[in-house]
Specification:
By secondary structure, the protein is mainly alpha-helical. Helix content is about 55%, strand content about 5%.
Length: about 300
């Protein structure tokens, strides 16, 4: 996002251009997600474009008006949207304070709304079987199937899978490993499940490609036979929504496959500790909450109480 579109006037743009780029670069480095960077870039653009002032002239009421204002959709923002807007601007100002460019964060004076997150849900094994069965065996369909299997069997986040390139794969005997960069800059090297590897090979063959002859910087997820670039996360998201519709499943985002991976592992008998390592969670408490939301609270005593009541 060009800095001159974030602040008004050539002089102001020149003054703040490198600061804005530096903030977004740091955000990408810390989060490991271009999706986060794109989201923050869009919100900053809308904010500074709306207030028409430079970062050092912003006051709390400017942020409040933007956070609670009607966005491009024309609808009143939800509490989670308001919170996301304030978080974005606040993150930028924390960066400016650290750099000594401003002395205060205008967001510190704002009360953040209490967001009510949607309850996470995961697909059952039968749901995923139905989903895979409805995907056509075209080159695009085989590629989407390979991505779905990779997401479900590895439990990795969308960007961690979508960014995989040929050079990220390595073979040790009969086992193929994949290297990835996770959230917060974490790096990992894990075994690529055989069904996912087989699906990737079939997908590439459909695009007249072979893993053994491809360049290391080529994406595993072809967008065409000629292009070495992979598809974007947005394109895959749109395809996935159509696959869900054909399968008769409720609409959902890509992250439901990570939820499903965790739930299926737990259903298969893995301990919470194992699932936590599988998901790369920072601590066990995060995984416990994650699974509790997916599985619901179990009540093993209600039958005995019901028997006592004769119901």
């Amino acid at each position: 996002m060009p800095a001159q579109t974030l602040v008004q006037g050539a002089d102001a743009a020149g003054q703040w251009e490198q600061t804005i780029y530096a903030f977004l670069a740091e955000k990408e480095r810390r989060s490991g997600s271009m999706r986060t960077v794109d989201s923050y870039s869009r919100m900053l653009y809308r904010f500074f474009g709306a207030v028409g002032n430079t970062p050092d002239k912003i006051i709390a009421s400017d942020v409040f008006g933007y956070a609670h204002g009607v966005g491009p959709s024309g609808k009143k923002p939800s509490s989670s949207t308001v919170g996301a807007r304030i978080a974005c601007v606040s993150s930028f100002y924390r960066f400016l304070v650290r750099m000594g460019l401003v002395v205060a964060n205008p967001c510190d004076q704002l009360e953040r709304p209490r967001a009510v997150p949607a309850a996470p849900r995961g697909l059952t094994a039968d749901d995923i079987k139905t989903l895979l069965a409805t995907i056509p065996e075209t080159p695009v369909g085989l590629r989407d199937r390979a991505i779905i299997l990779a997401l479900t069997l590895t439990g990795r986040r969308r960007t961690e899978v979508m960014n995989l390139k040929v050079g990220d794969l390595s073979r040790e005997g009969d086992v193929v490993h994949y290297s990835y960069r996770g959230k917060g800059g974490k790096r990992g090297n894990r075994e690529l499940p055989q069904p996912a590897l087989k699906a990737i090979q079939q997908s590439l063959e459909a695009f007249d490609k072979d893993l053994d002859t491809m360049k290391p910087d080529e994406s595993l997820w072809r967008s065409s036979t000629a292009s070495e670039r992979g598809i974007t996360g947005g394109t895959f998201y749109g395809n996935l929504r159509r696959h869900f519709k054909r399968a008769g499943l409720p609409p959902a985002g890509v992250h439901i496959l990570r939820h499903s991976a965790a739930k299926l592992r737990r259903d298969a008998g893995e301990s919470i500790e194992d699932v936590s390592r599988f998901l790369d969670h920072s601590n066990l408490a995060v995984t416990t909450v994650y699974l509790r939301k997916l599985e619901g609270e179990r009540d093993e005593r209600w039958r005995r109480v019901a028997e006592e009541l004769g119901v």
